[in-house]
Write a structure and sequence with these properties.
The structure is a single chain. The protein is of the alpha+beta class. The chain is 27% helix and 32% strand. It has 4 domains: 2-60; 65-139, 2-Layer Sandwich (GMP Synthetase, Chain A, domain 3), CATH 3.30.300; 143-203, no CATH class; 212-260, SH3 type barrels (Roll). β9 (218-221) and β10 (224-232) form a beta hairpin.
Length: 262
């Protein structure tokens, strides 16, 4: 089923609606998703027939854009105040960001926590203080990075903040395929989870793993039989050691110039 994918400005998740030929990629719209929210059209996407669709209420007006900007100022000012209330109550949770719907009829507190949190007293305190309905949304570390944003180890803004809407499965095997040291500082992102970018080149490295000889295996080269000491997937080079008497000579060959085995 083809649907229109819409990225919400105050949520880590995308929503889907019936395609509308009057809306283009980048169009700002108001959708009814657990209340009126503002988002931008990303494009058309094929999804499962069971996906829940939201209603596009209208294309954003000048008044909608102004209200959204005012709401952003409101929630930014609210964040430190709510964090203080959480600290006063001694709750073991981290408030990541605050959001509200377009008509500001409720406050949504987005938080991360390792264990279940009893926030009933917090809701009571915040409701009495702000005279608004309070909703608590527990999010994952990746979702937090997506909304809040951060700089990755590459020096660029994290991919989840820039353009990723769905998180693909990333595994330790992908890091191993790319010969990356399994050090958390090397393979984990700002969210503490495995780097999403490990997925980008995984197909290439899987193919090269099959083509390249394993380190320690014997190969036949134009200069005879030697033992592989290193491989360079990007250059498609293989480093081979030749041992004669008690000395070892090392040479580098193109993958095309060697054969696996004797």
């Amino acid at each position: 089923m083809q649907v229109m994918e819409i990225v919400l400005f105050n949520s880590p998740n995308a929503v889907y609606a019936q395609p509308d030929e009057n809306l283009k990629k980048g169009s700002r719209v108001v959708v009814d998703s657990n209340g009126l929210e503002v988002g931008a059209v990303k494009g058309i996407k094929d999804v499962d027939n069971k996906v829940e669709l939201v209603k596009i209420v209208r294309e954003c007006t000048k008044e909608d854009n102004l209200a959204h900007c005012e709401n952003c100022k409101f929630t930014r000012a609210l964040l430190p105040e709510i964090k203080k209330e959480v600290e006063k109550l001694g709750l073991d949770m981290k408030v990541s960001f605050i959001s509200t719907n377009l008509d500001r009829s409720k406050i949504i507190v987005n938080y991360t926590a390792d264990e279940r949190v009893d926030f009933r007293e917090l809701i009571k305190v915040l409701g009495a203080k702000y005279k608004l309905r309070i909703e608590m949304h527990q999010i994952g570390n990746r979702d937090e990075s997506k909304v809040v944003g951060a700089f990755g180890v590459c020096g660029r803004v994290t991919c989840c903040k820039l353009y990723l809407n769905d998180f693909d499965k990333v595994s330790i095997k992908m890091a191993k395929n790319q010969n990356i040291a399994l050090n958390p500082t090397r393979i984990n992102g700002m969210c503490g989870r495995l780097l999403c970018c490990l997925k980008y080149e995984d197909e290439f490295y899987e193919q090269m793993q099959k083509k390249m000889p394993k380190v320690g295996s014997k190969v036949t080269t134009p200069d005879g039989v030697g033992v592989v000491s290193a491989t360079d997937f990007l250059r498609e080079n293989v480093t081979v050691n030749f041992t004669k008497d008690e000395s070892t000579e090392q040479k580098i060959y193109s993958l095309a110039d060697i054969k696996k085995g004797k």
